Amino acid sequence: MKKSLLLASLIAAMALAACGKKEEQAAAPASEAASEVASAAVEAASAVVEAASAASDAAPAASEAASAASN
What we know:
Layout: H1 2-19, H2 24-70
């Protein structure tokens, strides 16, 4: 989860850095692209959090199944 948060932060930082350029023609598309990248990063981070939560919920069941199979 820490890696995904770091990745999302890096993407957001790069997007914000791209918005600071003074090229007027590229400013509008860059800001649109930056918001799209930030949205994608947030969605990806949410998916990672959900997957980690599902995995942690499944771990006790898998442990019980392995215990039952060994008996």
